[in-house]
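Risk mitigation, structural track. In case the binding assays with glutamic acid fail to produce interpretable data, a predicted complex structure has been prepared as a fallback.
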Amino acid sequence: MHSSDPRLYRGRFAPSPTGALHFGSLIAATASFLEARSRGGEWLVRMEDIDTPRNVAGAASDILRTLEAFGFAWDGPVWVQSERHAAYQAALDSLRQAGLLYGCNCSRSQIAATAKLRAVDGGWVYPGHCRTAGLTDPGLAQRLRVTTQPLGFIDRIQGEVTQHLAAQVGDFILRRADGLFAYQLAVVVDDAAQGISDIVRGADLLASTPRQIWLQRCLGYPTPSYAHLPVATNPAGEKWSKQTLAPALVPQAASQQLWQALRFLGQAVPDELQQAPLSDLWGWALTHWSLAAIPRQQAISAAAVPG
Ligand code: GLU
Ligand code: ZN
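Fallback model:
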């Protein structure tokens, strides 16, 4: 599992066990799986249960059963983030040693009252009060210093992406005051530890990618290649998700739903295959998969999503 062979393609699907898989999850699972397999690579599944208050009992095993029912097969054991705290703590310690981390005791309301800039993901750009305060109490929220240089990368679907972390995000939290490790830290540590070469996931995470690349640089990790898929949005322009009541995937309707996911991904899957056995559909998909056919959009409106 820790091969460092630079020629090896290794992709992953990283669901959070906050509920059942839905059409949006199927799109990310299907595209990451087909890209990995069509390039002779490995495909891993990782359970991102780091945000423990959001976990739903039974969701993790339900997700794995649903993936199996849809015909997905993964390589190696499923990594579970709640078992990886020591690795996240070690990464924090090395960042602290490098002077890149600092404690922050600002409250949410203090930040809202003094911040001047809106952040890429809707919150506020941290105005930096504690940046030079030298707060070393490890029980405080821990923030990572960001670069003032623009940070860019070429996404295989979305093209050139540039973000100014200092102006659009600010120093961001890697460990919260309540002790929870942040998604940004856990995902970067695990992608590196699992030797992930290629990340294929929804464009709702595009704005997080510069933060993750910055963190990779701070930790001395390689940067994987990225491909961000369009996400399905409802007529209000919101991503179809558990919060917007996207219906759960139905294993009994796996063929139709997989067919719809392939169509959503721009693949020219024939109409006849909509009712075909799952194995025929996978057979078609594995030989015809084309990342280049995926619409170069961050969102595609869908009045309803299959469920
Ligand atoms: N766990 C994240 C989610 O379910 C995905 C993280 C990732 O693919 O980087 O949205
Ligand atoms: Zn602060």
